[in-house]
Amino acid sequence: MEPTPSRSPVLSVVVPLYNEGGNLPELVLQLDDALASLDDDWEMILVDDGSPDDTWEAIRKAAMGNRHIKGIRLSRNFGKEQALCAGLERAAGKAVVVMDGDLQHPPALIPEMVGLWRESNADIVEAVKEDRGDESLKNRLGSRLFYLILNTLAGYNLKNGSDFKLLDRRVVEAWLSMGERNLFFRGMVAWLGFERREVPFRVPNRIAGSSGFSIFRLIKLAVTAVTSFSSASLHIVTLVGGVFLLFAVVLGVQTLVNKLSGGAVSGFTTVILLQLIVGSMLMISLGIIGEYIARIFEEVKRRPRYLVRDETD
User: Fold this and answer.
1) Whole-angstrom distance, CA of residue 168 vs CA of residue 93
2) Is this prediction's pTM over 0.85?
3) Of the listed ranges 42-51, 174-183, 278-287, the one predicted with least confidence
4) Do the Cβ atoms of 94 and 169 come closer than 8 Å?
5) How does pLDDT run across 242-291, given as a tens digit for each residue?
6) Span 11-230+304-311: which CATH code?
7) What is the rounded CA–CA span in Å between residue 159 and residue 167?
8) What whole-number distance in Å separates Cα of residue 23 and Cα of residue 30?
């Protein structure tokens, strides 16, 4: 007979889901097997991020047959980071494992993460990719470029990192105390600090469905990450402006000398090129500044990070 979980479980597992109806039965089965080996009270929080497929029906069906499972359905697709937040706000465990629902974060690794958390007194146990699996060349190059930019501008080295993490309760409370609306879970955990350990893993192939992250979503996440954790882009705008000022001074002195010496030559090509270069830099600079203003605009509105449409009993 399946034991009834206590009010304060030792472990919570938070899984954001989007169009994962095909993966869910196997995910729940593997999580049940992995968590049952811990001999601890645990809970599984499955968050449906407004999926248009049968993900919510699959969650409800799983919750009816397993009293450890709690299901949350958001009112629309708010994004993975917001779905994670919904799960973390409801997680009651002394430790919380966060993972993806596509089975590319192997549930069998959870007992090792829990053991390391107990033995080392680490506050964070991170699963680090030693092999990225069958990821496409486009995604590999995009990931490397993203991590390079973030490391250069913000100083956070997240290469081969993942959202597959175990967080101690005090880390979860610290994360929840960060009130920002533009969320980048991995970067926020890195910013918190705390003592951490790493567990390597190889990324398995998906058993069903496809990734819900389009190029547009990845670019949007990258922009959010950079603007949320670094103001270096604004300093680059200032630096480029200073370089162009020096260039303008040198060019102005040269033009004045040529004029006074009678050697001035009309050159429309030079003027046009200068206008194109300066105009392009101005537009790019305004775009960078606009991104930061957009982040400020979203934060000051203070809208909820997400809205819940339904929950299981």
Assistant:
1) 9
2) no
3) 278-287
4) yes
5) 777 677 667 667 666 766 676 655 555 566 666 767 777 777 777 777 77
6) 3.90.550.10
7) 19
8) 11
* Backbone angle region of 14, left / alpha / beta, with phi > 0 → left and psi within -120 to 50 → alpha: beta
Q: Tokens 């050697």 — which residue? A: 263
Structure tokens at 73: 């359905």
- Is beta strand 69-74 parallel, antiparallel or unpaired with respect to 308-311? antiparallel
State pLDDT tens for residues 213-244. 556 666 666 666 666 666 666 667 777 777 77
Concatenated DSSP letters for 216-278? HHHHHHHHHHHHHH--HHHHHHHHHHHHHHHHHHHHHHHHHHHHHTT-----HHHHHHHHHHH
Look up residue 191 and give its two tokens: 């910013």
Dihedral pair phi/psi, residue 185, rounded to 5° = -55, -50
Question: What type of residue is 228?
Answer: S
The pairing of beta strand 95-98 with beta strand 11-17: parallel
Cα separation, 243 vs 24, in Å, equals 55
CA–CA distance, 261 with 278 (Å, rounded to integer)? 28
Bridge partners, residue 98, by sequence: 14, 165
